[in-house]
Specification:
The chain is of the alpha/beta class and 250 residues long. Helices cover 38% and strands 16% of the residues. It has one domain: Rossmann fold (3-Layer(aba) Sandwich). The chain contains 13 helices and 9 strands. Helix 4 links the parallel strand 2 and strand 3.
Length: 250
């Protein structure tokens, strides 16, 4: 059973496409007509106007794909069932950190099967760990992320060619409730469904989750969170480490 077979239930309810992220991902894919999406999950951010090959090992996640999405092939990133240079472009959205010991092999597989751009949405854990949630309440996730997220520079080295790394600020009103979106919504930590759809919380022991929920509930009620971070409520977007890595053959 894959990780998301246990933590992916209800994912599609709170992790909906943000059109601003979608626009940036699709622009980075260029004029590709065929795209492989590795770690495709529920299909968020897949192009609808191109031929997509979706690769996803979790039955729970593929069961949540909409009817207008391509059916998913059950496979892992480290062994893509595709020939060399068989697709125009590849994408992977917040997935590489779940590839465990296949991370390097999986990223190199993206390059192997792709003629053109490889587009990866990921986090720079050195930046995301400084967000108030991880820095003050959830250092366990900050430490985990440093272990499991390859630095964007490492992804660039594995991909080779010409690589650019772009910051992706997260809007306050994003419908994609990834953990980084909590920067603007401390109350979201108190929502079990919102927590469960983030792998950071889902991978924590219940004792850690209960501690964080209790501490944030207290600090919100007593006004301590707003004393420290109330200025965030006036921002429209914030860079909390989300990064778009775009590699093209050199």
């Amino acid at each position: 059973m894959t990780r998301y077979d246990s933590i992916g239930h209800g994912y599609a309810r709170t992790r909906r496409e943000d059109p601003r992220f979608r626009e940036r991902i699709h622009a980075a894919l260029g004029d590709a007509r065929t795209v492989v999406n590795v770690g495709a999950g529920t299909g968020a951010y897949e192009p609808r106007d191109r031929r997509v090959l979706a690769i996803e090992p979790s039955r729970v996640m593929t069961a949540q794909r909409r009817e207008d999405h391509a059916p998913a092939i059950r496979a892992t990133a480290g062994r893509l069932p595709l020939r060399d240079r068989s697709v125009d472009a590849a994408m992977s959205v917040l997935s590489v950190h779940h590839w465990d010991d296949e991370q390097e092999r999986g990223v190199r597989e993206l390059r192997r099967v792709t003629r053109g751009a490889v587009v990866i949405l990921t986090y720079d854990a050195a930046v995301s760990g400084a967000m108030w949630l991880m820095a003050e309440y959830l250092p366990e996730v900050a430490a985990l992320d440093l272990r499991i997220f390859p630095p964007p520079s490492q992804l660039a080295a594995w991909l080779g060619g010409d690589v650019r790394i772009e910051p992706v600020p997260i809007p306050r009103d994003t419908p994609d409730w990834m953990l980084g979106s909590f920067w603007a919504h401390p109350e979201r930590v108190l929502d079990p469904d919102a927590r469960a759809a983030t792998s950071g919380f889902a991978r924590m022991p219940i004792t850690v989750v209960d501690r964080v929920v209790s501490e944030i509930a207290r600090d919100l009620e007593e006004g301590l969170w707003d004393d420290r971070h109330g200025e965030l409520r006036s921002l429209d977007a914030l860079d909390v480490g989300l990064r778009l890595v775009v590699a093209t053959p050199g």
